[in-house]
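@channel sequence for tomorrow's demo:
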Amino acid sequence: METMFNQAHAKELMNRIDNLNPGLQPQWGKMNVAQMLAHCSAFQDIAMGNSFPPRGWLGILIGRFVKPMFYNAKPPARNMSTIPSIIIADDRDFEVEKETLKGKIVQLQKDGPAKITPHPHPFFGKLTAEQWGIGLYKHLDHHLKQFGV
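C-alpha cells (generated this afternoon):
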C-alpha cells in the first residue's frame, strides 16, 4: 500500500500537487483548491503532533471499530464528514497553501515514522505510525482526485 513514509509515494503526491492550479473546480465537495490544500495541511498537522483536536463522542463510541477504513485499500467515500477543526471555509492563498503542504510532506519524510504523534486520531483513536502513513497518503490522494490530479 502507498504510504507517506515511502519517498517515491511522497514524490508522486508532490508532483500531483504541482499539477494543481487555482482555477480547478472540485468534482465533489464544497472546498476550492486552496481550501483543500489548507485542509490537507491541517490534517498533516494532526499526524505530526502540531494540532490536537478533541475526540468527539461518535469517534469514542465507534471509531475503533471503523478505523480500518482509514488505512485499508478501499478509497474513501466522496463527501465524507471530516474533523470539524480542519474544515476550511475562509479564503486562502493558493500558492501559500501549496508550498505549506509541500513543506509538511518534506518534513514528514525527514522526520519519519518515529515522529508521528502518539495522540489519538480525533475519530479513529490510537493509530500506529504505519497506519498514519497509509491514512495520510490515502487522504491526500482522495483530495487530489477531487480536483482531477
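heads up for whoever presents: Residues 76 and 142 are 7 Å apart (CA to CA).
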